[in-house]
Amino acid sequence: MPETPDLPLRPMSAGGAPTALDGLLVVDFTRVIAGPACTQTLADFGARVIKIENPDGGDDTRAYDHAEIGGESAAFISLNRNKRGITLDFTNPAALEVARDLIAKADIVIENFSGGVMKKFGLDYASVSPTNPRLIYCSISAYGREGHFALRPGFDPITQAESGFMSLNGFADGPALRTGPPIVDLATAMSACNAILLALMAREKHGYGQQVEVALFDIAMAMTTFYGTAYLITGENPGRFGNSPNGSPTVGVFDASDGPLYMACANDRLVRRLLFDVFERPDLLTDPRFDSRKTRTANREELRATIAA
User: Fold this and answer.
1) What's the CATH fold of domain 245-308?
2) Spatial distance between the Cα atoms of 212 and 199, rounded to a whole number of angstroms
3) Rounded mean pLDDT of the chain?
């Protein structure tokens, strides 16, 4: 068994220090990644989060295979710190009543079930908001709660593929690649957290809560950013650039004497510092092949070879 890495000690926060979300109750009906990552952030900033799991195995991440300690998987631990938890079987009327009681007291409810599940048990926003009008109710789904795909299940890598996000990852001469970490799930979690915090601000101003919604597919599309916008302008697929976005000659992996080095000199100021201060090649700054971003890109292979040498 490999040795545990010797990590530096990190000082603990002072006990009793005020937190941003102190006093807020979050009832967490989420599982797997996007929902738990969102509620974990709320918990980290002081909210009291009660995680509700089914009694038949609980959250799927409890069984993930990455690693485990104390009977808990690395995935579950990484997404569920600072939470309290209970198990409830929604087919049991008494358990369902417990869920309704918690929602009636909650500031925030978050769920990421398949479409129609919360409504089936009378726990959807329309059913519970009349008894708790200040409630902020967040739904996380793959494709949204309305429309043709509302009942369609979906996961991070599927939305990476369908949105075109995956087509931007990898090398030009290879296939499209999903990211290693579940980046769409995690970005969706952050967006859901932002939506909840905005709804809390609105509640302070207007006195009532609201339902907010975030979909993985929407976030995946948004994450194509300027590449997606460029496609809408030109109609051309931007393709894949490996470690050098847009084929930039001064951004990417270079082989140094002691191993690979990632360098990111992405603007004229940094390129000037690289060529003048680091490589002591001021002649390259006036070389017509490399004196502007466009000429450097047009002659990228020559510049990369010069840098690599």
Assistant:
1) formyl-coa transferase, domain 3 (3.30.1540)
2) 8
3) 93
